[in-house]
Amino acid sequence: MPTRTLSRTVLAASLVGALAVGLTGATATARTSTPLDGAPGIGDPYWPLDGNGGIDVASYAISHRYVLATKRLSGRTRIELTATQDLRSFSLDFLLEVTKVTVDGERAAYAKTDGGHELRITPARSLVAGTEHRVVVTYADKPGRHAYAGERNWLASSREVVTMNEPHMAPWWFPANDHPLDKALVDVKVQVPRGREVISNGELKGREVGKRWTTWHWRADEPMVPYLAFFAAGDFAIEKGTRRGLPWLVAVSELLSPRDQRASMRLMKRTPEVVAALEKDLGDYPFSVVGGITTGLDPGFALENQTRPTYPAVGGSYVSLVVHELAHQWFGDDIAVQHWRDIWLNEGFASFMEWRWAETHGGRSGAATLRSYYDGVAASSGFWDVVVGDPGAERVFDAAVYGRGAMTLQALRNRVGDRVFWRVLRTWIREQRGGNGSSAEFEALAARVSGQDLTSFFQAWLRTPEKPAATADNGLA
Question: Which EC class does it fall in (predicted)?
Fold first, then answer.
């Protein structure tokens, strides 16, 4: 099991989750007199069942067969994890019907709880805090039958499937510790009818072609948040190359019309160019490969799946969308949120980088964009009602989280000056790399790097449900 940097964060979250259900003593080194049942949630206030207490996952090895015509998924996932407390049982987030579970090669008892979202596993022997274990879950089901938190996230036709959604997607296709606090390595093998393609995160490691089936094997080099893992299966045109030492691979669904296919491929092939532009401001791209995929289905949104964002067909000129999703590779993927209330650190930052792209490619400046937003939205608008720093589960992806999040960053840039602002962002990326970040941590870092008291600034922009005053302190004068 590889050494990982997130154990301290996951251990703390496990303790929070344990306390939330009345448990005590959840640390990697502490011992309890009696093994306990791991908490069914990691401690996120928005979705209490997301993630799980008592475990820290290092890797997922996913091996599936998917039948496009029937939309049936079958296979197994091997999970390498560490117990972070003495455990009598533990949970994984998973919606599908399970046929077998083993822990360290021995059969384990299992049951579905909490409306079918939690897979509660009771191993033959209790797990001791600090010990490493291999869990294998076998299953077969039609994912489209299932819902969680009001979401039905399986996006599939009889010719194509793509697993893309946020904040939840993993439980529809593999058992996971489904919260940003627990990143893990992901290895994906998917078997599909011969002649079909499979696209996933990371690098294509191999393809085995049989008489009736083809198995595609993808692996990412860096740990990722579970919702960022994905696969797409169907008929895809694939192109690849290398730019400045960075391998890229893009794919476009052949379900699209020939005209849309050509336009989408032109847009996808701008991915390396966009990465190079982002690197000028943000430093080195954080992963070993990059790419993108355009689906022929209609998700209604794009998503920042790690190393290979997924897009709807939007034409060949919508570069700002590619900028947004690739900016997420730094803000959201490499640096994941601490809790979902910190979502502006993902969406506000990616939206701001769209402004920056326009500024450096013949469009208006970020300062002009901020002023246009500010002057164009009346104080009575509901846009100002959202508490950006803690919007609530119902408004976690509200337009204000994106727009006001970007405004906050440009206002900070106005307040501290351009040179200091970019030093703030670079320092944030360097210090949080590969981990998680909270709004409170970013605010403290901005104050430290700038040498300014920014308390009232962030209070006005992130925590006050009204239009900020047009003052120099708020970056608006």
Answer: hydrolase
